């Protein structure tokens, strides 16, 4: 796992972006006066997840995220409009309220996702620097190999052969005479 752009974190990022884009698009579409049927919502989610999964291998910049979300809002608006029963009757699929709602949804979702993206990458860089320390703390200390005790030949004991016959304090010193 090298970065949030690979592995499980890439799938989590793609899923979070998809949920945000589709959620805000559906809310904007509903606030604009149209309905979003369940199967159409599922189809739109699958389409967005496929596209976002393909482009989520790198860190998103603000401009790239805004462009991705604007295209997503546009595409989801058309998917929701085609899938809605009101489309058959020609009811306002491009009303000014709908347009404003999708633009607001794009700007708000860009802000939310950009903050999340920055937080994720900042946390990742912090954890990546912390990883070597954590690994050394969590890994068990390797045990030293058990010491092999071998029976050695007994050491010879030193026996003092010369022992003093007399025990006790030393005898008082005799004064030296001048004649000696």
Automatic annotation (TrEMBL):
Keyword Membrane: yes
Entry keyword set: Membrane, Transmembrane, Transmembrane helix
Transmembrane segments: 12-32, 38-56, 63-84, 96-114
Protein name: Uncharacterized protein
